[in-house]
């Protein structure tokens, strides 16, 4: 019953130590090229190589080492259940990020950053708009909605199924999307990446939003049509964008986004998996599978999230 950790290209010392502490009598192994995988029953994966999956004859379950599962589901996986990380700490971090990203544009810090390079002293009042739309009302979207609403923003949200969330004006289903975005000042994307949501932040959507609104993409780079964003910033349809995720990561040095003054750009850090809280969930799921129970936070593979 081996738990195989496949989180390449980073230092996994703390992760391995923590998992081994939580599962002292079990075999927790760090993946490397050429390792024997014949006894592996559970894989913890983030950016695992696709050639790994056919080498696991005894695999019973997979856990993503993040909240998203899109990169896993792109691969040809064995037919086993998949879990993901659902963590209040992650949701807190995401809420803080979104609040500050909105504040950056609301308080015009974006303009003052540009003024600073030319020593321009030009005080202006903060923007007055306080309506935030959130695409995706799941674990993270709901936490962000609550945080924003608690500090006085007026919040609308959009999901696949109907929701009733106190203080949030809820919309559901594809046919309500354009109505939901029609009077937002800020639009936050917290959707999972699926065939239905890929490219959802595009010119058609931007044109339905008020002139001068701002987008915040903290979900996946492929939600955004990058060319459409540059055009919308250029012609003033949008006045800014906060982007934490990109189609290609790391963002290539020659990418036009680096030079855009009205793009706030961060390197996929809005909600980084917390080793301590994540390991508890992973160890728990490993034991659940060992006992023949269902996984906690199991995704619905037919929906893609
Ligand atoms: P959840 O699965 O909890 O929530 C997803 C939400 O999106 C649900 O409300 C769901 O609707 C809605 N949704 C899915 N498909 C559609 C659709 N076609 N139309 C309308 N609504 C839809 O995910 P999380 O909140 O935990 O995470 C969201 C995403 O955030 C992750 O998938 C990941 O990509 C990204 N992320 C980014 C991080 C970062 O550091 N930048 C960190 C962590 C996550 P319903 O409720 O009806 O099912
Ligand atoms: C995640 C992420 O999905 O970090 O957890 O993007």
Please give a structural write-up.
The chain is of the alpha/beta class. The protein has helices at residues 13-22, 70-73, 88-106, 109-117, 139-150, 177-181, 203-208, 226-234, 275-290; strands at residues 2-6, 27-30, 40-45, 61-64, 82-83, 131-135, 154-159, 168-172, 186-189, 213-217, 238-243, 263-265. The longest helix has 19 residues, at 88-106. The mean pLDDT is 97. The protein binds NADPH dihydro-nicotinamide-adenine-dinucleotide phosphate and oxalic acid (OXD). Oxalic acid binds at residues 66-68, 273.
Written as H for each helix and E for each strand, in order along the chain, the element string is EHEEEHEHHEHEEHEHEHEEH
CATH superfamily of the largest domain: NAD(P)-binding Rossmann-like Domain
What number of structural domains do the residues give? 2
Rounded average pLDDT: 97
| CATH class division of the largest domain | Alpha Beta
Q: How many strands in all?
A: 12
Which strands sit side by side, in order, in the main sheet? 8-7-6-9-10-11-12
- Hetero ligands: NADPH dihydro-nicotinamide-adenine-dinucleotide phosphate, oxalic acid
Overall geometry comes to elongated
Helix content: 25-40%
CATH topology of the largest domain: Rossmann fold
Q: For this entry, what is the oligomeric state of its chains?
A: single chain
Cα radius of gyration in angstroms:
21 Å
